[in-house]
Amino acid sequence: MTPVTSPPHGHAAAAGANGAPGADGLDPEAVSAFQAAFDTAVAADERIEPRDWMPDAYRSTLVRQIAQHAHSEIIGMQPEANWIARAPSLRRKAILMAKVQDEAGHGLYLYGAAETLGTSREELLDKLHAGRQKYSSIFNYPTLTWADVGAIGWLVDGAAITNQVPLCRCSYGPYARAMVRICKEESFHQRQGYELLLALTRGTEAQRAMAQDAVDRWWWPSLMMFGPPDDESAHSAQSMAWKIKRHSNDELRQRFVDICVPQAEALGLTLPDPDLRWNEERGHWDFGAIDWREFREVLKGNGPCNEQRLEQRRRAHENGAWVREAAAAHAAKQSARASQDGASRTARSEP
Amino acid sequence: MTSTAPPTPATLPLGDDALILSHRLGEWAGHAPVLEEEVALANIALDLLGQARALYTGLADVLGSEDEIAFLREERAFRNCQLVEQPNGDFAHTIVRQLFFSTYQQPLYARLSPVLPLAAKAVRETAYHRDHAEQWTLRLGDGTEESHGRTQRAVDTLWRYTGELFQPIEGLEVDWQELAEEWSAGVRDVFDRAGLTVPEGPREGAWSAGAGRQGLHTEPFGRLLAEMQHLHRSHPGATW
Ligand SMILES: [Fe+2]
Ligand SMILES: [Fe+2]
């Protein structure tokens, strides 16, 4: 926990206290004044900043969500990195490498946002590696052909954008700002994925079949990315009230389906859902039942790649331990040498 | 020589160096020791890939499209030096390979930039690569006993691939002797500051058939190409 420093900006008068003591030491009156200021700020769509007072539960909800998001970015590098070495043209190799690099960058922004809440990257990585924090289940599916790279860009980055664009207006400032940068890049990824699939569907029979097969495998898991249906979603209501979340899981899922159906048609690909049809009355596409049993199983750790993904993460981290130690040791020696130099210079210059 | 094969275009070895090292660095994706290095190694890989594509594109009239050059040549037709094809090994190994190569590539590009079909920024890119390698060599050489040991071992292992870098490439107007001296001075300077020892072993293999610049490679290179070329070759004539 970082200590409370000030109430949400512009509401100092309401709270009437500057340099307030740690949350635990606050008297109940001060807490309720801070709480009121916080509620007013959120209601007025103002941003909460790191030094503002915030309820403990708001902070921990944010840390959990940002951590899960950051972990998803770095685990999400794996299924796509799987194809860098085999990319079938130099242009595609460059695009894919840049995309995987972007995801690493997203991880950096997000761990940075979590740090503003008083939680270090190291701590979050340890939790990920210990299996105590989650990442998006979508990355527990394997990339079996080159077309999977396109399907991930089109569907997985596409679903991520649908989920994340509203987060650009999230009540917590650093998270919202990170999301603005991230969404810009994700939309590149989505277009590149679509364009990759388009090249395949306009290509040979084998390439077309590869594209269809990939979409057949990635469609349903992509719909699951929006999380459980609204009536089963544990954290949704409170997050909506705090304006961490702005739309329900089912709303976003519907929005995504509505976007994808015409795009699939333009690609000349079939979405693997016989119940997909336009509902004139609702003004939306109806779609079939999602296999929530599969969702829960993958979440529990029984997906095709859960163990592999986490194992690679742990191994990279463990194999990197000596490098991080070396960098820290060198930095410490450097500063010791610098202060020694400084000291001897001072000693020499003394009369 | 009885060969009637057309002479190797002078810039092909440079393009092959860039492509193959880029490919090797791409293998780090998802395996780097810290997130910042995921970004940095990918940056270097992307720069090198961009350089390879520019150099290949300049050879289109002689050798075909960039993809034909990269994906349809056999192992013996590649002219990259053996240094860049060496497997990544641990992080120290990769960094020492980067140090040896960037200390060669940066002054080479600086000398050749007016005549190479490379953007002016390629020289700046190689300067950044060199700085990245030097900084890490200092950290690793100076850091802990373990990092020092790993780095010295990498230096000892890769040393034998450094002599080849200064074999003259026909058609490139470069004072190779001067380049070699500059390289030695640069590497020694970094070694001094990092507490590393210059190996005593030879700087090239004893095989008179030659090395990478003659199309003679090491065993890991065939597997690299098998992986890199497999998909492209499985769909002859396809567009991606
Ligand atoms: Fe991302
Ligand atoms: Fe992305």
TrEMBL record, chain A:
<dbReference type="InterPro" id="IPR009078">
    <property type="entry name" value="Ferritin-like_SF"/>
</dbReference>
<feature type="region of interest" description="Disordered">
    <location>
        <begin position="1"/>
        <end position="26"/>
    </location>
</feature>
<dbReference type="InterPro" id="IPR011881">
    <property type="entry name" value="PaaA"/>
</dbReference>
<feature type="compositionally biased region" description="Low complexity">
    <location>
        <begin position="7"/>
        <end position="23"/>
    </location>
</feature>
<feature type="region of interest" description="Disordered">
    <location>
        <begin position="324"/>
        <end position="351"/>
    </location>
</feature>
<dbReference type="InterPro" id="IPR007814">
    <property type="entry name" value="PaaA_PaaC"/>
</dbReference>
<dbReference type="InterPro" id="IPR012347">
    <property type="entry name" value="Ferritin-like"/>
</dbReference>
<keyword id="KW-0560">Oxidoreductase</keyword>
<feature type="compositionally biased region" description="Low complexity">
    <location>
        <begin position="324"/>
        <end position="338"/>
    </location>
</feature>
<dbReference type="GO" id="GO:0097266">
    <property type="term" value="F:phenylacetyl-CoA 1,2-epoxidase activity"/>
</dbReference>
<dbReference type="Pfam" id="PF05138">
    <property type="entry name" value="PaaA_PaaC"/>
</dbReference>
<protein>
    <submittedName>
        <fullName>1,2-phenylacetyl-CoA epoxidase subunit A</fullName>
        <ecNumber>1.14.13.149</ecNumber>
    </submittedName>
</protein>
<dbReference type="InterPro" id="IPR052703">
    <property type="entry name" value="Aromatic_CoA_ox/epox"/>
</dbReference>
From TrEMBL, chain B:
<dbReference type="InterPro" id="IPR009078">
    <property type="entry name" value="Ferritin-like_SF"/>
</dbReference>
<dbReference type="InterPro" id="IPR011882">
    <property type="entry name" value="PaaC"/>
</dbReference>
<dbReference type="InterPro" id="IPR012347">
    <property type="entry name" value="Ferritin-like"/>
</dbReference>
<dbReference type="InterPro" id="IPR007814">
    <property type="entry name" value="PaaA_PaaC"/>
</dbReference>
<dbReference type="Pfam" id="PF05138">
    <property type="entry name" value="PaaA_PaaC"/>
</dbReference>
<protein>
    <submittedName>
        <fullName>Phenylacetate-CoA oxygenase subunit PaaC</fullName>
    </submittedName>
</protein>
<dbReference type="InterPro" id="IPR052703">
    <property type="entry name" value="Aromatic_CoA_ox/epox"/>
</dbReference>
